[in-house]
Structure formats: structure tokens, C-alpha cells
Write a structure and sequence with these properties.
The chain has 289 residues and is an alpha/beta fold. It has a domain of 201 residues: NAD(P)-binding Rossmann-like Domain (Rossmann fold, 3-Layer(aba) Sandwich), CATH 3.40.50. Helices cover 38% and strands 17% of the residues. It is built from 10 helices and 13 strands. Strands 3-2-1-4-5-6-11 form a 7-stranded parallel sheet, with helices on both faces. Helix 1 links the parallel strand 1 and strand 2. The longest helix has 22 residues. The radius of gyration is 18 Å and the shape is globular. The relative contact order is 0.15.
């Protein structure tokens, strides 16, 4: 797969992992929102004109949309910014790719569903509960409509891995507990923690096999967020008594969350993608924190 690959959002944990995964597949152009490091360029997903100018200059054959407005609660007030980044920017990218024979990969979320079903197939209708989830569902539709035969949409859950910004749930939890902080966590919100390296390797696998469409890509464990926290405590030898299980209504989170969304990953497995890491395997792969 020797082509020019454009990564949007290369500073985040997913973007960094994608840069590593695709580094040997041809020229890889990394972009960040601001303050680029050596070898990186700037790109703003909310700036349609800037995106088009960038793509006209680079002429990527593959575009990986790793950047997103992913602060779920902030999206409730920054609605227009959220929509520009998560939906409008990807639409512009997908339309450019359609006109220039390219392929786009869009990363989405289990939050596009409301949790009313025991589990979800890729073909199930979405029912987003928050502004963030609605923007991701809109982004999916935009990419799918613009590139019916040349898109890859990967829905995932609870992404974690090496993160220089230390923002993902696992690393942030470790930092807070090591500082002796009491951490209130929702006792009734479930998910499937997913190692970043699994998501990036699945992306490359599907692309190299010329497989396109929508796939659910999550880790094999489906558990409450509090149980994940206890497993983090056990692995890193932290004080689990600092974790306070709390029903979601008592957390007063601005954005409504689905409580139990289990994504069926059989389509991904049937494609031949190697098995994803369990929570314990994923924590071990993080190395020292």
C-alpha cells in the first residue's frame, strides 16, 4: 500500500499510533491543530477551505481522520464547533477524496447508540443521546454518502494506550489515584475498553485487504467503568478504596450517556482481523506509567 497517507490529529493517542502503524507504507504526512513538531504540519478540521488547500497540495490517496472534538460534556455548549470538527470537516475530506480517487477512514464511537438493545450490529439504526454522539453519527453519514465504496468507518469504545498528553481514562485514573485523589466513577456505565494499537492494526489490516464499510472494533471485555478502574488498581498496585462507585444521575454530567452499549464485533472477526487484547493484556502493553 504505497501511497501518500494524511493523518489528521496526529498529536492524540490514536493519531500517534496511526503514524507508527503506517510509517512503512509510503509517505505519511502528520498534521496537528496547532504548534506542530518537526516534520508535522497544521490542519484545522473546522476550516473547510484550509483542508481543501492542504489536500490539493499533498494529494493523499489515504486520509485517516483521527482528530475529533471529543470532550463529550463541552460539546453540549460548544455545539457548532463540535459539529464543524466531527461532521463538517469529515464531509469536506470525504468529498475531496471522492473527487480525487482517495479513501477516507473515520473513527466513530459506541455513543451513536442509546443502549436500549442488548448489543448492536453495524446495520442497526443509530440513536445518539448527546450533541457529541449526534455529531459523530452525522460524520459517519457524510463520509458514507460521499464515498460509498471507498470509506472505512470504525466504531470503537474506551480507547486507551500510550498518550503523551495523559488524557485517556486509564492514564488519567492512574495519575489521580497516585496523587491520593478520591475518584467518583459511574457504577452503571458499561463499555468495551480498546487498546489503541489494536484499532490501528485493524485499520491497516482492513485497508490492505481492500475491505471497506462500517466495522465495530472494540476490545473483548464488556464491563462497568468501575470494574475497569478496579482492574487498573490491581495491575498498577493502587488503592482501590479511592474509587467511589456513583450512579450516573448523581454525577450531574452535562451530556447524556448511553449506559450499556455492547458492539457486536463478529464482522471484524470474520474479516480475519487478529483478536484484540483483553484489559489485562492491554494494561501490560502500556508499560510503566
Amino acid at each position: 500500500m504505497k501511497t501518500t497517507t494524511l493523518i489528521l490529529g496526529a498529536r492524540g493517542q490514536l493519531g500517534r499510533a496511526l503514524a507508527s502503524e503506517f510509517g512503512g507504507t509510503g509517505e505519511v504526512i502528520e498534521t496537528v491543530h496547532r504548534n506542530p513538531s518537526a516534520g508535522q504540519q497544521t490542519a484545522d478540521l473546522s476550516d473547510a477551505g484550509g483542508l481543501i488547500t492542504l489536500m490539493d497540495r499533498i494529494r493523499p490517496g489515504l486520509i485517516l481522520i483521527a482528530g475529533a472534538f471529543c470532550n463529550v460534556d463541552l460539546c453540549e455548549t460548544e455545539t457548532q464547533a463540535c459539529r464543524r470538527v466531527n461532521a463538517e470537516g469529515p464531509r469536506v475530506i470525504a468529498e475531496w477524496a471522492r473527487n480525487h480517487g482517495g479513501t477516507a477512514v473515520y473513527y466513530s464511537t459506541d455513543h451513536v447508540f442509546d443502549g436500549s438493545l442488548p448489543e448492536y450490529l453495524e446495520s442497526d439504526p443509530v440513536r445518539p443521546l448527546s450533541v457529541y454522539a449526534a455529531s459523530k453519527a452525522e460524520g459517519e453519514t457524510a463520509v458514507r454518502n460521499a464515498l460509498p465504496d471507498a470509506h472505512l468507518i470504525l466504531r470503537t469504545s474506551g480507547l486507551y494506550g500510550p498518550d503523551a498528553a495523559r488524557k485517556n481514562f486509564v492514564i488519567r485514573l492512574v495519575d489521580r489515584l497516585r496523587a491520593g485523589e478520591t475518584v467518583r466513577l459511574p457504577s452503571d456505565q458499561w463499555g468495551s475498553p480498546t487498546a489503541t494499537r489494536d484499532l490501528t492494526s485493524a485499520t491497516r489490516f482492513l485497508l490492505e485487504k481492500d475491505l471497506r464499510g462500517t466495522y465495530h472494533a472494540t476490545g473483548p471485555d464488556f464491563l462497568p467503568r468501575t470494574e475497569l478502574a478496579h482492574r487498573v488498581c490491581a495491575f498498577f498496585k493502587l488503592d482501590e478504596h479511592l474509587i467511589v462507585p456513583t450512579p450516573t444521575p448523581e454525577l450531574h454530567q452535562p451530556a447524556k450517556r448511553p449506559l450499556r452499549v455492547k458492539l457486536n464485533t463478529q464482522k471484524l472477526k470474520s474479516a480475519g482481523v487478529p483478536a484484540f487484547l483483553s484489559v489485562e493484556q492491554g494494561l501490560a502493553a502500556l508499560g510503566p506509567l
